Amino acid sequence: MIGSGVLLLLHPAFVEEAVFRGLLLPRDGSSWPRGRLLLVAGAALAVYVASHPINAMLFRPQVLGLFASTPYLALATLLGLACTGAYLISRSIWPPVAFHWVTVVIWIWLLGGQTLLGT
Fold it and tell me: Is the whole-model pTM more than 0.90?
């Protein structure tokens, strides 16, 4: 379990947060006009959500049904919103990484995600 926990910390938590929050959003959102910040944050969120079924198509087609399902995408959207908020409030990548990691670990280990992914 510890090995899988470390892997989940690296991917998806760190990699996705580094890309979708760290690279796509400004570190100091207060220096941007609110409308522009909302537009950029919304676009980053949309790309984040869309990346899940795209990754499944490219790398794990056996889970495409799950990663493209409405409930999964709705939950990914909520996680993305929470991580975006944590990043913009803290101005650090680490709170969203931690939040993302804890969420995925709970889903995989305690809520049946491992079975749904076939691992």
Answer: yes
Residue 26 region by backbone torsions, left for phi larger than 0, else alpha for psi between -120 and 50, else beta: beta
Over residues 96-105, the pLDDT tens digits come to 999 999 999 9
Does residue 12 have a cis bond before it (omega within 30 degrees)? yes
77 token code pair: 């959207």
* Calpha distance 71→39 (Å, rounded): 24
Residues written for the chain:
119
Report the distance separating Cα 10 and Cα 97, nearest Å.
9
> CA neighbours within 13 Å on the CB side: how many for 7?
5
Please give the pLDDT value at position 102: 98
